[in-house]
């Protein structure tokens, strides 16, 4: 499968021209947590153990798990690349369609990968991978279902990158001994450039992962900003409310444009447009970038607009047929 990603706004600008682009191709919150000025000293010293432990403590409270099971990483992508190289190679099962980096990373590390449409088909795998809620269609599984799957596999990776608004879906409070949970920071808090994520796993696995990641895998500014943002529960509550309402609003605009809503999460929606290439082209001429997928010529994914001006432009573009 092609190893494509959203966020390639430079390619969009090259093809359709420069301008004021609205990038809805990634599912990253366009109303980011407001970063305040940092102490100048943080740019001149290496990240401290105290700063890392502070972030771990706040993150463990947010994830509702033991702090000994949390490790900050340089974005969830860092864990996706390293985990397949730290586990014994074997047969992996990846729930699809989903985030395509898993299958690519596993194959690159020497795993034999089987793509499955249902979690019931993943039993017996040396390593199973489930994204919950799923990207791009928003399918979701109760923690109890994933505990059952974990009991039928050697290891289970659960990617909860879009689960921050949905604590009811998280497996972190239950933490089976053979489960590795990945959490993103950049998506919900809208600070993808910080390159911060978390691996939640039994301490016995975190140790070799930390050794493989090397010293100072997360920058000092990322540690400080991450701790402050995760502690800001008022902002998080407001973000959940906004995106709960906004996702329904986007669905309504898409349906009025003749598209079929297929699902999604608080941060992105998926549509059957009939002709994804043509509809992406139509939006791109309005400098609105969307996400197509190599395995479907009908599906188009849109992130959530962040302010009144963006909503107006999206509504205008969708109404032009």
How are the SSEs placed, and which strands pair?
Layout lengths: L8 H8 L5 E2 L25 H15 L6 E4 L2 H11 L4 E5 L5 H8 L3 E5 L10 E5 L11 H8 L4 E5 L19 E6 L12 E4 L2 H11 L6 H12 L1 H24 L3 E5 L3 E5 L3 H9 L3 E2 L1 E3 L2 E8 L4 H12 L2
Parallel strand pairs: 1-11, 3-4, 3-5, 5-6, 6-7
Antiparallel strand pairs: 2-8, 7-8, 9-10, 10-13, 12-13
Helix pairs in contact: 2-7, 3-4, 3-6
Pfam family, one: Aminotran_1_2
Function: Decarboxylates L-threonine-O-3-phosphate to yield (R)-1-amino-2-propanol O-2-phosphate, the precursor for the linkage between the nucleotide loop and the corrin ring in cobalamin.
InterPro entries: Aminotransferase_I/II_large, CobD, NHTrfase_class1_PyrdxlP-BS, PyrdxlP-dep_Trfase, PyrdxlP-dep_Trfase_major, PyrdxlP-dep_Trfase_small
């Amino acid at each position: 499968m092609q190893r494509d990603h959203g966020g390639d706004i430079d390619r969009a600008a090259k093809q359709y021209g420069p301008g004021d682009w609205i990038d809805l191709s990634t599912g990253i919150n366009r109303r980011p947590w407001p970063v305040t000025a940092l102490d100048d000293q943080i740019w001149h010293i290496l990240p401290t153990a105290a700063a890392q432990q502070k972030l771990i403590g706040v993150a463990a409270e947010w994830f509702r798990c033991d702090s000994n099971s949390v490790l900050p990483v340089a974005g969830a992508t860092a864990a996706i690349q390293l985990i397949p190289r730290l586990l014994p190679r074997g047969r992996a099962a990846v729930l699809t369609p989903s985030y395509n980096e898993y299958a690519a990373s596993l194959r690159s590390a020497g795993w034999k990968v089987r793509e499955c449409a249902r979690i019931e088909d993943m039993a017996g795998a040396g390593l199973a991978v489930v994204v919950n809620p799923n990207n791009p269609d928003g399918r979701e599984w109760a923690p109890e279902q994933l505990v059952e799957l974990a009991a039928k596999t050697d290891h289970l990776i659960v990617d909860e990158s879009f689960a921050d608004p949905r604590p009811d879906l998280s497996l972190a409070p239950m933490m089976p001994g053979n489960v590795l949970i990945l959490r993103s920071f950049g998506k919900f808090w809208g600070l993808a450039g910080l390159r911060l994520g978390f691996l939640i796993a039994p301490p016995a696995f975190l140790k070799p992962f930390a050794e493989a990641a090397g010293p100072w895998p997360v920058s000092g500014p990322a540690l400080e900003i991450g701790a402050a943002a995760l502690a800001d529960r008022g902002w998080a509550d407001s973000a959940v409310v906004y995106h709960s309402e906004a996702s329904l609003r986007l669905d309504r605009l898409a349906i009025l444009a003749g598209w079929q809503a297929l699902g999604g999460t608080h941060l992105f929606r998926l549509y059957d447009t009939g002709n994804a290439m043509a509809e992406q082209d139509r939006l791109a001429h309005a400098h609105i970038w969307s996400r197509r997928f190599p395995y479907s010529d009908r599906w188009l994914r849109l992130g959530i607009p962040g302010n009144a001006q963006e909503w107006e432009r999206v509504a205008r573009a969708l109404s032009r047929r």
